[in-house]
Amino acid sequence: MLRAIIIDDERLARQEVRRLVEDLGTVQIVAESGKPQEALGLIDRENPDLIFLDIKMPGMNGFEMLDEISGKAPEVIFITAYDEFTLKAFEVNALDYLMKPVETERLAEAVEKVSKRIEKRMAQVDETEGSSDRLDISDQVFLKDGDKCWFVELEKIRLFESEGNYVRVYFEESRPLILKSLNALTDRLSEKFFFRASRKHILNLRWIDRVETWFNGGLLVILKDGTKVEVSRRQSVKLKEMMAL
Questions:
Q1: How far apart are CA 149 and CA 44, in angstroms?
Q2: Same domain, 7 and 120
């Protein structure tokens, strides 16, 4: 059964969503809140699979709230009375966007999509990884750069590149710049899948196409998209050990 949190500043709206969701019998509502800041604490505490999220709320809208989530992002179904946010909702890869009043059939369809995506992701998890506070390769994260935002599965991110106090994130055709340090990312990413190549780069090991010798005992990694990443001499030793039979 999916574990979910309802976030909406209207109490009656929360009650109606709860009633509809509980009638489905496939989702357990573990918490609800009408305050985005409070909801962030609930998300950290409950680690839900899914959040039903309103967009227009006092103090912080739904997109801004998502930007405050640290680490693993839950699946999101937006529920709102305003249709002008439809395009942006799908730009962030939300599972669905439901208009108030919510129709039972549409809600059931949205929840089914969430279930299928979570099942697919769980099937990709390597059981040998074990329990850890680090993000798994199949987890998704929320990224925001200015007015643009994305939900991205970590397996699709091929490279993190430090740019001052920011980090450039490379996935598909996008290159957002996020306010994070490479050291902070190193502490959150699984070493099994992400490798700190140097003070400037973290690369996804699954995206490596080939490795060539480089100057001063270092290595040059060529990713599947053709991007070249220099590996420091010290980290080259570690990479050779990791990739050796």
A1: 20
A2: yes
Domain that holds residue 234: 152-243
Is-contact 213 220, C-beta < 8 A?
Answer: yes
Residues 6+ apart with CB under 8 A from 188: 71, 134, 135
Number of domains observed in the structure of the chain: 2
Would you state the structure tokens that stand for residue 30, as one six-digit string?
A: 């573990």
The pair of structure tokens assigned to 173 is: 């055709």
The pair of structure tokens assigned to 234 is 């010290």
List, for residues 143-179, the tens digit of each pLDDT value.
888 877 788 889 999 999 999 889 999 999 999 999 8
> Is residue 48 within 8 Å of 76, Cβ to Cβ?
no
* Separation CA 64–CA 55 (nearest Å): 9
Beta-bridge partners for 97? 78
Q: Is 202 exposed, middle or buried (0-12, 13-18, 19+ CB in 10 A)?
A: buried
